Model the fold of this input.
Amino acid sequence: MSAELMSRLRVGDEGFLVASLIERCPKTMMLRELVQNALEAAVLPDSTGARAGRVEIGERTIEGARKLTIWNTGPGMTADEMFRMCDIAASIGKTNALDQNFGMGAKVASLPSNQHGIRYRSCRGGRVHQVVMGKRDGLYGRIRQQAADGAMAEVIDVSDRAQDEGRDLSLDWTEVVLLGNHAGQDTVTVPYDHAPDTPDGWVADQLTKRFFKLPAGITVTLSPAVTGGEARRFEPIMARVGGGFERHEAVPIEHGAVAHFIYDEALANPRHPGESAVGLVYKSEIYDVRRGGEWRLDAPSFGFAFGARQFSVYIELPDNFAVLPDTYRQFLRWSRNLQDHAVVRHFARQVVTARPEWVLALLRRLAPNARHVDAARGEMAGLFARLRIRRRWWPATPDEAAPLPSAPAAPQSAAPPQQDSGPKDDFEYEVAPRIVAVREAADAKERGLDGLAARYYGDSHQLFMNLTYPAVQTLRRTLERDGTVAGAAPGDEEPMRRAAQIAAELAVTRQVCRRLVYALAKRESWTNWQVDQAASPYSLTMAADDDAESFGWARGEMRRQLG
Done:
């Protein structure tokens, strides 16, 4: 019936389609695709029924230059299978499906950086066949080679050549050699022909960023040329959980997902070569990974106001989760609705509420003491109630379990009283966010607060105050001059300076907190984008700069500090 109703769509310009698929592929997916293919083959028994389970990443010298190789055990390919394997959307021994194999990955991801050639060799039943793919005269395809009988062919038998090179023909294997864009290119250290350059150890780094765990019984070995030292096994994150990290706990969250909390005190040392990270895990691979400074900037959204250097978080999704990899497997997309990218930030609130007690205990230990600044939460709570702002932040944070601190009483000349209990009814008012004081310039820069007074993280309901911001110090100096004019008693200079600092910090924090409350009050009538702009770091910073509003209150607070 379908044949009578339908005519199949065909490709109008096959060469353009092939080139478009290849040249739009992110170069950095090359290693992932080659290693994933090797892993999928290595888990299978070969033609003799043996299962060696080995993947080796090393090098071979070809035409005087080192070339990166990926070698694996598993079912070898015949000459016919190698020919068919080269086509787009073709794979051998796998099912093509959106949630399984696309039949494009390795060759599509490798050809942009290996137009001189990608050499495939495969041994099956003691015979080794070879095919080379590359780009010639603007076309991608199989490069014809000279066979032993002198004829030119796409796939040739190189069994004798492989045996002369000392290759083992008693088991099945497949090897990929990256020939680069020209014969003299060292693809071990310069895999992308300097566009872009890669650091030393790039192979291990990219594998760590991508593979959360390996299939059971599989070993991946990196040669000395690849490591820059000794040969070693690649150990993904989950392989190191048993002894490489101090603490690890997997906590179930919604819809069958699991949040992995990993703690390693050694990472607190800036000279440590490792990095903490956050990422999404789907079918043993990591997506949307954020490491180092990127992770520390986002960490407050996941409930890690401090300690992000030592903590890593991975959200592992079940295989039936409503996501699909995109065409090049660089991103995950939601499989429903508009198919937007699925990113780790979408799971931030679940991570906040899933943090186990040992994690919370370490976070409390790492948090600095700034209770006088946190006292501004008292006024925020009163404003939320007076403005009848409905509660949106439901999960309890560690600080919410403790009594809400009270803000100091304001002098008569200052703004309305800070503690406003609001109407007495069953209405659930918004809770005051936790206030995190940042006192070091380097810490402020790392958290994206360089030149900004504050940043609000809605996912974890935390307000970061940059107490190195110039408005704080300007107000402090003004208060000190005011105290000097008022005639501080001899010996009171140090207490006066300390009181001026506290009053300045609290006054600027108070200004920012009030701006944030009024921004959140617009959630019922404004769009999310408009509310985000009102609560943005730029809006909060302008509130901090309003020293005319804060001076009178700060002056009264300084006097209160001095008794």
Summary: The radius of gyration is 31 Å.
